[in-house]
Structure formats: structure tokens, C-alpha cells
User: What shape does this take?
Amino acid sequence: MERHAFPNDFLWGGAIAANQAEGAWNEDGKGPAISDVIRNGIVGGQFDGEVIEGHYYASHEAIDFYHRYKEDIALLAEAGLKCFRTSIAWSRIYPNGDDEAPNERGLQFYDDLFDELLNYGIEPVVTISHFELPLHLINAYGGWKNRKLIDFYTRYVETILTRYKDKVKYWMNFNEINHFHTIPLAAGGILIEDEETKLQTIYQASHHVFVASAKATKFCHDIIPNGMMGAMLSLSPIYPHTCHPDDIFESYQLRRRSLYYSDVMVRGVYPSYVKRIWREHGIEVKMEEGDLSLIKEHTVDYLGFSYYRSSTHQAGMPVLGNTGGIIGKDNPYLEKTEWGWPIDPKGLRYVCNELYDRYNIPLFIVENGFGGKDEFNTDREIADDERIEYIQKHLIEMHEAIMDGCEVIGYTWWGPIDIVSAGTGEMEKRYGFIHVDKDNHGKGTLNRTKKKSFYWYKQVIESNGKSLYE
Ligand code: BG6
Assistant: This one.
């Protein structure tokens, strides 16, 4: 490969999630999802358990992608995207999650959406479950702590994979599943009611997720000849705050708490380090006969991950997190975004190497981006130079990782079109190269406007990365 070349078939793209973009939360037979009853985002926001009149729920309209997807995809095609990642809203297909039959209108919507993408030659990349569990599955079953969820998920997976098998090759089982510990409701589909049993609940629910993932992978391989099922984790790295051995080892353990999810889904076995955790916390994970062999035989084909920033951990400090990862100590070597997220391009190279050394399977960077405020200048343009600089530096480090020997198959810019923030529910934390006219209170025309970064990314894609160095 010449010095500045990316692989010829590199998947340059963009990524969104249904609940942050579609809106139409109760249209065409869709049932409510957990994301439809959370106010002010999944990190520290309010889960109402039902829709309470008079409150503002950002997902109900979001950016109205459900009705405007044709206009939006035309813009994404103009930017030259090779792939587009979105999720299927489970409750559009099975409104309660446990229904016997799927909702045809929901299925039709994704048929139309994928057809639209394919007409432009854009490869769909689909997350099966992205922070949007059908609400009924939490209220009636307690979510993933209940083994029945494996059957409901499997039915849903079989329905969508069968329906879209000729349209979608790249699948991902669960979004950022390692956020089970820090964002248990959205990422893990469980409510933590009792701190004492928190770990028991997390490890039991995680086991159900692993069995469900293995079944989904098996089904994918059975019916889609070249189908690829990926895991998806949030993998911003954790650096030790100092070279004190306690900082180093505790950071390592914290990292393993995340990698636990890929260890099981990629390697197909429970890692030995978790046995000690279970023993010391009195955790008993109930398994059924055949679970472990399923997990072993049906491992994922690639590892998708999000990368926004790095964290710095000091031994003994409380472990809190948000959508970007663990919230650590200040890293004096790094600048931060307005939302306090450290900007660390080299961390991306580091993580690619760490993951490829550990697993040796293809990596797919399915989320990366810069969340910030935008302003129109006097010419009614948005010159988002900071965002361009952020993405450029990250892409250069990603390229370094490829030169290091890591197999990276694609990169999807998070929120290519402004969407609702998952963490805070804000609209004004913007990631897009396309601006959407809407504010934090739901006001605005929803008009779309190309930002400076639109033209910049288009060039990056057109030149297959060469323009990054010009
Ligand atoms: C990831 C999620 O955690 O980070 C996305 O997969 C989310 O859903 C993204 O939007 C950025 O986080 P935030 O809180 O800025 O939207």
C-alpha cells in the first residue's frame, strides 16, 4: 500500500440511531421504546416509564428522519458516502417486543429506507438494538435480566434478517453493550433498583445477551451467505493517571470490564478473570445446557466500536461514565470539547492496535465525531473548522493504525446529519456535516443546511483519504 492510500474498498460512511433521528414515535403501528419515555438523555435524565403529558421527549419528533429520509439520503449520497449505519427500531417491528406477529408497516419502512440507500450505491450497516428496547419488555419482564428476552430478540432478529437478507450484509447485535455498568437502562435494557444486587443483575443479563448474540450470529451465517455479524462496544481507552502501580492495575481492570464483552463474543469463552469477580461478589450466573457451546460456536465476524475520547483513571476514584466512556481525571496533555470530552486522536491509533493485537479480526470504527455548538456566520454559512480539525486528526491516526497492520474495514462519522444527543437529549450538541434547524426545546423549521465539513468530507471520500494530507 502506498504511503497515503486507504484500502480500495474502505467503507467511508456516517452513522445514526433510529431513536435519535426518526421521530414518528407512535406512527404506523410503532410501539413505545424506552427512549420515548426518557427526558433529558440517558445519562442522568429522567426515565418516566410512560409518556407523561406536558413533558418534552426529544425522540418523539427527533429530526423527523422517518418522513424526510429521502431528502437526507440524497444529501448523504451527494457527500459520497459508501455506507450508512442506522438501527432498526425494534418497537416498529414488534410494538411490544413480545408480539406473535410483526408490524408490516414497520418492516416496509426499512425496506424503503434500504432500497433508497442501495439505489445510490450506499451499503446499509444495521444495528439491531441501539438504546431503544420496546418499553413493554422493561415494564412487563424487567428487560434483559429475564431469560425470555432471548426468545423475543431471536424472533425479532429472524424476522429482520429474513426480510432484509438481500439488502443488508453488515449487522451489529447490540450498541455499546459494555455500557451495561454505567448506562444500564439504555445500553443493557435493565433497571437497577437495588445497588446490592446490581452486579448480579448485570452479569446475568449479560449472559442472556451473549446467548442472544450467538443465536443471531448463527442465524446470520445460516441465511446470508456473505453476511457479517459484528459486536459493538464503546472503546475509548482508559489511561492510568500516574505510573503508580495501583493506578496502572486498576485502569487495566477497568479496561477489562469493557473488553469482557468482546472477549466473550469474539473469543467465544468466558475469560478467567471474571470467575474471581463472580466468586468475590457472590454472583451466580444461571446458564442452561447448550448456552456455552452456542457462545463458543457462533462468535462475531468483526468488532465495531465507538471512539470519542480517552479517559484517565486514578485508583480508588468513583467510576462514573457517560456516552463517551468513563469520566476520569483531567488529562493535562489534552484539550477538551465544550462538553468536557478530551480530544485525543492518537488514542484512536492506540485502541485499534490494542484491539487488533487482542482479537485479530476486522475492526470497524462505527462512531467517531465532534459534538459542539454551531453558528451561522453573516453569509448564512456554518464554518465548523473545529469539527474538521477533530475528524482530520482522527482519520490520520486511523490511517496510521492501518499502516501499523490493523485491519480496519470502515469509518462512520457519528451523526453526519445533526441528531438528538443520546446522553443529554440536546439538539444543540451537534455532530453533523449537515445542520438541522431545531433547538433544545424542539423549536425550528427542521431545514437541512450543508456545513463546511460537508464539502471537506466529500473530498476525503472522493480522494480515498489522500486529501487528508494536502
Ligand atoms: C454513543 C452512542 O454512546 O455516543 C450514540 O452510541 C451517542 O447513541 C454517541 O449519540 C454520542 O453521545 P452523545 O451523548 O453526545 O449523543
